[in-house]
Amino acid sequence: MIWNEEFETLPREALEALQLKRLQHQIERVYAAVPYYRNKMEEQGVRPSDIKTLRDISRLPFTTKEDLRINYPFGLFAVPFEQVVRIHASSGTTGKPTVVGYTKRDIDSWAELMARTLSAGGAHQGDVVHNAYGYGLFTGGLGAHYGAERLGAAVIPISGGNSKRQIMIMQDFGSTVLMCTPSYALNLADVMKEMQVEPSSLKLRVGLFGAEPWSENMREEIQKRLNLKAIDIFGLSEVMGPGVASECIEEQHGLHIFEDYFIPEIVDPKTMEPMPLGELGELVFTTLTKEAFPVIRYRTKDLSRLIAKPCSCGRTFYRMERITGRTDDMLIIRGVNVFPSQIEHVLMSIEGVEPHYQIIVDRQGSLDIVEVQVEVSENIFSDEVKVLEKLGKRIEHEIKDLLGISCRVKLVEPKTIQRSEGKAQRVIDKRKL
Amino acid sequence: MKVEQISVFLENKSGRLADVTNILAAAGINIRALALADTTDFGILRLIVNDNEKAKSVLKENGFTVGKTEVIAVEVSDRPGGLAAILNVMRDTAINVEYMYAFIQKSGENAIIIFRFDELEKAIEVLRSAGIRILSGEEIYSI
Ligand SMILES: [Zn+2]
User: Fold this and answer.
1) Nearest residue to A34 (alpha-carbon basis) of A274, A244, A287, A301
2) In which element (H, E) is residue B24 found?
3) Which helix (H) or strand (E) holds B88?
């Protein structure tokens, strides 16, 4: 069901008009209230009045995690501190956490967005929402909690941990909707098996999983082992927390971005130029309504693409493809930026070639040496040496054409390339930089 | 008139050839002829065995990539010029020999040469009209 019919099904034209109005207002406010953003805009030679169309967003400076770190803890807040009613923080891998704040209205918007998310996943009033996202500084627990209450469901704020107790409560309270990370969902399935609890004896119907990358294979496994429909949800604390985008239960394919609250962009992580619609690149978000902690063109470092194709659920919001990787996976080879997914793309474009490959980078003297190992499947195998050698040369050629790097293709036997948990290790970087 | 040959992709790692022969032996399959073509990175093992289907499936089960090709087997008398006579016949046509390998029959009298041509049907015609005997699959598998 669509939670907010009026906004979630806005015709694109009306939606874009709303986005522009909100963007202009947001930029004016940020420019006036946050010196750091104002300085960055001045450096870039752009003023709020320059934002005349949605395309003008590309004139604005980007924001990175580094900007957030520099302004630790409250430097980027855009309201007087007494208007802040909530503070969350995400653990930084190095040093200080990233701090975000919310006004009363921000909390209200967030609840709306999570109610939409739950509704898109098929949850409704009367459901028992088993919320196993962590409560605390992490945005997952409280974000989901407020959304479930807004939806009118009964929330069990169980948070993470103690799986046996979780399963007992699922049985006794009749949990119908599960919210947690996908890896914790699999852990619950393991513990159920241990406890000899049949998933079909539970009332679980749907699960909303996010906060970490997962795959289609993992979805299938979760659906089978927990006997529910698994929905991919997306968010990040710097932008809002959960509730930025969500799959719909109708298609389970691509996550609708709540575009009346956020403008998504896909940019080339190398040139930082906007990419044509549908191309793979780095996902960037600008918030349109946030008061306490607005972000302008925040670089997520996640790789995705936008899907403009209308969806059978009726929502007019564009969908983002499931996150396929991180810009951190980017390799710099002889000064050229290379993504493993680009090599995969080349291989898949050659008929019969399956994308089982591994990239091995090494350094000889001061030169980077790249070897691409490709598994020989029956489709490409030949009894003639020259046919296989030609195939290897062709792959080398196409990689050179597309990526501008020379590499050596080595054909290897199937299953040579290490797979861990069904996921292949795509890159081995032996360079000692 | 055609003989079925199976081919196996091998990486140039020690022991892979032995792995193939051990797997076939364990499945009770006899190898009639064998030839390995190799490059610096990989090799292609070509085999004529007494049970192609079984050999294919048992190798696949063990993770090998296996292919199937049709080749021609020709009997060549074991005297000087035996092979040259065949190659001379082919030289005047536009048919290419992709590769060939030989093995000796148990009786030790004649050699059998396996040919892989780019144009199989045409090659059969040419060899026949030159009076060269082509062996059938059954003859080869049951040697
Ligand atoms: Zn949809």
Assistant:
1) A287
2) helix B16-26
3) helix B82-91
E-state strands within A261-327: 262-267, 281-287, 298-304, 306-307, 319-320, 325-326
pLDDT tens digits for A229-286?
999 999 999 999 999 999 999 999 999 999 999 999 999 988 899 999 998 899 999 9
CATH of residue B112? 3.30.2130.10
Tell me phi and psi for residue A93, to 5 degrees: -70, -30
Same-domain pairing of A281 and A388: no
What 3-state DSSP class applies to B40? coil
**How many Å separate Cα B3 from the centre of its chain?**
8
| Cβ within 8 Å, pair A383-B5 | yes
Tell me the residue range of the domain where B60 lies: 2-69
Q: How far apart are CA A126 and CA A1, in angstroms?
A: 14
Distance A415 CA to ligand 1 centre (A): 37
Q: Which amino acid does the sequence have at A190?
A: D
Which of B5, B20, B44, B114 is best to mutate for the A interface (most A CBs within 10 A)?
A: B44
The whole-angstrom separation of Cα A203 and Cα A126 is 13
Q: Which residues contact A71 (CB under 8 A, 6 or more apart)?
A: A36
Alpha-carbon span A352 to A163, nearest angstrom:
45
Q: Is B52 on the interface with A (CB under 8 A)?
A: no
Domain count, chain B: 2
The Cα–Cα gap between A302 and A329 comes to 10
Out of A281, A307, A327, a domain closes at: A327
CATH of the domain at A386: 3.30.300.30
Contact predicate A333/A360, CB 8 Å: no
ipTM of the complex: 0.89
Task: Name the residue in chain A with its Cα closest to that of B100.
Answer: A384
**Residue A289, domain CATH:** 3.40.50.12780
Which residues neighbour A4 within 8 Å (Cβ) at sequence distance 6 or greater? Answer: A112, A116
* Residue A278, both tokens: 């549908």
Nearest CA in chain B to A387: B98
Provide the token pair at A122. 């098929």
pTM for this one? 0.67
| CA torsion angle A107 A109 A110 A111 (round to 10) | 90
Smallest CA–CA distance from B61 into chain A, residue: A414
Number of structural domains chain A divides into: 2
Structural domain of A132: 5-327
**Which residues of chain A have a CB within 8 Å of the CB of B98?**
384
Same domain flag for B8 and B63: yes
Contacts of A6 (CB under 8 A, 6+ apart): none
- List, for residues A88-126, the tens digit of each pLDDT value: 998 765 667 899 999 999 999 999 999 999 999 999 999
Angle at CA of residue A306, ends A304 and A310, nearest 5°: 145
Q: Based on the domain organization, do A236 and A203 belong to the same domain?
A: yes
Question: Each residue of B113-136: pLDDT tens digit?
Answer: 999 999 999 999 999 888 888 988
Partners of A389 on chain B (C-beta within 8 Å) are 39
CB A163 within 8 A of CB A115: no
